[in-house]
């Protein structure tokens, strides 16, 4: 079983917050406003605004609502968020993780 945590060139590129994707590909892409999206999915407009400005992550609650509204999977939104967080943490923990000796199984 391999749990590789090798830092790649991809990890060195600035991670894209899921809010940027929400804004560019969905809100602007479909020509709607943040407010229209918020009202349509039943969340406070501030939540959408904070997500698109990278100040808030996408929770499971929001992912379910976005998936329903845009006709996507819930996993799309959760994966965008978890991949973003993993890329950030890999950068922070790079040296500490490199110092960990993997378990050797005989």
TrEMBL record:
InterPro entries: Cro/C1-type_HTH (IPR001387), Lambda_DNA-bd_dom_sf (IPR010982), Toxin_antidote_HigA (IPR013430). The keyword DNA-binding applies. GO terms for molecular function: DNA binding. The keyword Cytoplasm does not apply. Pfam families: HTH_3. Residues 31-77 form the HTH cro/C1-type domain. Keywords: DNA-binding. It comes from the Bacteria. PANTHER family: ANTITOXIN HIGA-1. This is Addiction module antidote protein, HigA family.
